[in-house]
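Technical annex, item 7. During the second reporting period the consortium partners agreed on a shared format for inverse folding records so that results from different sites could be compared directly. Each record opens with the tokenized structure and is followed by the designed sequence. A conforming record, contributed by the partner at site C, is shown below for reference.
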């Protein structure tokens, strides 16, 4: 069974105008799809063929000779997680259990500022994450395809800060992209579901 590009949880134009159908057509239809296609080429005919995406990632994480497999497998996983962290009509102050956790981190506005700082502080390509680490929420960033799950913490939410994620809509303005993500796009139901399942 080859890996397949998971369906988007909404239509390509559903996040307009904040995240355009044109951006999604490239980001999902080209970038995400290419990671899937490349992963299938890399694992085809190897002992990784037929394993789940998560098992492939954990099998190759930290192995320099398997870096291309890790990069493509992790990018497939990270992008699917990213798409699910947004919804039409999303954004705004958090709801549910995560709202209490964010209040304990200094409040909503501070949270967004701290998240933007993590996103902007990531030089080059990568991801900014909200994770649960032994019950404590933390904001972290990772370079390239790296993912917190490979380091033993539970991801709750991710924002893609590769330029391909925002350049068509926001050009070089990464902080505006992240601010808009939280104002208009974030899916707190998804974050709360991940928090409920966190270790
Ligand atoms: Mn991307």
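Designed sequence (site C submission):
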């Amino acid at each position: 069974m080859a890996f397949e590009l998971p369906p988007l949880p909404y239509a390509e134009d559903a996040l307009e105008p904040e995240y355009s159908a044109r951006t999604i057509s490239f980001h999902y239809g080209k970038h995400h799809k290419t990671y899937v296609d490349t992963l299938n080429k890399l694992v085809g005919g190897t002992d990784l063929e037929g394993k789940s995406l998560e098992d492939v990632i954990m099998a190759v994480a930290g192995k320099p000779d398997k870096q291309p497999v890790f990069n493509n497998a992790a990018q497939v996983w990270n992008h699917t997680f990213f798409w699910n962290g947004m919804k039409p009509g999303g954004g705004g102050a958090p709801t549910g259990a995560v709202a209490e956790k964010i209040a304990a981190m200094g409040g909503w506005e501070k949270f967004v500022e701290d998240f933007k700082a993590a996103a902007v502080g990531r030089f080059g390509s990568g991801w900014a994450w909200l994770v649960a680490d032994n019950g404590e929420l933390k904001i972290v960033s990772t370079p390239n395809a790296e993912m917190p799950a490979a380091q033993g913490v539970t991801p709750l939410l991710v924002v893609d800060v590769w330029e391909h994620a925002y350049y068509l809509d926001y050009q070089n303005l990464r902080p505006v992209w992240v601010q808009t993500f939280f104002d208009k796009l974030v899916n707190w139901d998804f974050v709360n579901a991940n928090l409920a399942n966190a270790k």
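The chain has two domains: 21-84, 97-196. The two ends are 30 Å apart (CA to CA). All partners now use this format for quarterly exchanges.
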